[in-house]
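Write out a record, focusing on structure:
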Amino acid sequence: MTNTRLKINPLSRRPRQQRLVMAVRGGAGVGKSFFASSLADAGLGRLCIIDTERKSRLLPGVGDKFDGLEVEHPSEVPEFVEWLLQSPEAAEQNYGCYALDSWASYFSAKHSEMIAAVRERTGDPLAQPNAEELAADQMILQGVLRSLCQSGKSVVIVDQIPAKGKENKEDNEMGRVLPSTASGLEYFVDIMCEVSLQERNGEVTRVFQVVKSNSPAFELGFEMTGNVRFKDFLDHLVKHSGSALPVNEPAPLEVAEMIAEPLQIVPPRLTIDDLIAKAVAHGFKQSDIVTAAKIYHQQSNIYHLTDEQITDLDRRMSAKIEKLSDASVSVPSEQTFSMRNGRLRRTGS
């Protein structure tokens, strides 16, 4: 019976469904949450919104067309994301797309906790974290974004611009300041749009403008106006990307997801004490090993030999033992010779 283990087949991870990961940023009241809820109408499966602002209850269709999970404390967000992506209970809900509303609410709360910890540690009520602390804070908090955006589903991350100019990063003597709305979100999404209400042709309309893009289907400055929904962006992606991947459900998997691989039995590591014991058992001395270590590996301290050097000395010793064993078998024991009838005869065993 051959011992094998299962490992992932990389060919099974080729994209099988077209998806779009978006960040939508803007001021309060411009329709970001409503846009995120439009994922439910894109034909991608049931939508689940992780609601850090506890406002999904105000969206039409909540509890019917999609689920809104209210987060009471910022520290719960990673637990919600882990549940959503890994738990059997979430899998039973057949979620096909996700939204986080909002990233700014989660990041700001956790970032404030870090600032409070710095001020408590330093005793300075006006202390600010240094550049290293800011970078570490950002890296830890971005784990939430990484999990959602790399889930293999279409995702909308809602972010907030608190005031004009706040979205710009500023430098100071400590390094780069990371405002809550500039926390590396653009690195995890396909496109980032800023939403605003603008006057166009004498009417106030909602404008979605692409400000960050990792997709050739969306150029910087590309705009959609009016009652824009997620499906409008998805349709544009499909039309201009030239991809034949299906949108509503994944294409059939044409290769095995897991493949069997024979297990390689690794021999136990030989120690210098094992080598000494083997030498003594076959009539050698420890000094013989010391001498061999000097000759073959220029090492006078046998306890500083590497695993490879110990293995080499064991191989040489085994060859010597085998050679001596063959020599002893070839020499007859307790034999005498006598002359009889003019011929030399051998007697004894």
